[in-house]
Amino acid sequence: MYYILDSVLDMTGSVLAAGDTVDTPRAGPVIEVRDLRMRYGDKEVLVGVDFTAAAGEVVVLLGPNGAGKTTTIEILEGFRVRSGGHVLVLGTDPADGDEHWRSRLGVVLQSWRDHGKWRVRELLAHLGAYYKDYSTPGRARPWPVDELLEVVGLTAAADTRIARLSGGQRRRLDVAIGIVGRPELLFLDEPTVGFDPEARREFHDLVHRLTDVDSTTILLTTHDLDEAEKLADRILILTRGQIVASGSADELSRQVAGESEIRWTCDGQRFVHSADDATGFVRELFRQHGDAIGDLEVRRSSLEETYMKLVRAAEGSA
Ligand SMILES: Nc1ncnc2c1ncn2[C@@H]1O[C@H](COP(=O)(O)OP(=O)(O)OP(=O)(O)O)[C@@H](O)[C@H]1O
């Protein structure tokens, strides 16, 4: 997902120019989507998407290229007008979202290329100032710059010009810009593309901190299944314009009629077997061989195997 950065600045400026300052505590879901439909010309991209996200939940949207993940996120952000269906984000229809509503959302864009001559601290302080009017007793806005720099791991780069940041630092800056207003709901569209493993791990820690410290609700898309498994409270699989599965990685693997792989040794020999009922199989194994069993391992389908099965089944090619 790419945005023209001028429009981001416009959005930031216009969004935060004025407004009332009371955040409504949320009793219901933070995101509520029912029968969401989207058509580009005569091409139907979303044909009835349904899901909700609760406060503080990390929901990961998975799906093949072109499944409609970015389209869904852009509709929820209020950047795209849907063709049909019911959508509420923080209790408001994004099509009617005002500046105060926008001030409660965070969007991480790909990627902040403007303002190359500005220094990191300077840009964050500048953008953060727009959120001041939206501070509430429960949520002081913006995030104090030094704390924010610390949270995203950019303290050492605080006085570096943006044009001189490495790819990983730039992405952290993107995240910092997305959360400077301490959003209640954060949208992350493929946030770790181009990250090295260390930057990716740091980013995952950051996501956990945001949910722990700030109870931020997060909707994230990724093609990285390890990332989905590490971060998600709930995974949604979108394919052919519909959510075809929803649950934790474990719950999804249970939904797929899959076999577990059991490995063991017995009297110095190695064995491997696949079974639907791993527990029953292992019970029987011990009943027959008792103490002679060693090095027992039971492996459930990986998220990748589960994902592939669910997508293929939905696409009718399983
Ligand atoms: N502005 C547009 N006009 C016409 N078609 C579009 C437009 N934006 C997206 N599409 C089409 O809608 C479908 C869904 O695109 P979208 O970007 O939402 O998918 P995605 O799941 O985010 O894909 P990816 O994983 O590749 O980022 C694709 O077939 C895409 O070509």
From TrEMBL:
Main location: membrane
Domain ABC transporter: 31-265
GO BP term, example: response to antibiotic
Keywords attached to this entry: Antibiotic resistance, ATP-binding, Nucleotide-binding, Transport
Entry-linked SUPFAM superfamilies: P-loop containing nucleoside triphosphate hydrolases (SSF52540)
Topology class, membrane: Peripheral membrane protein
Organism of derivation: Actinoplanes italicus
Protein name: ABC-2 type transport system ATP-binding protein
Location of this chain's protein in the cell: Cell membrane
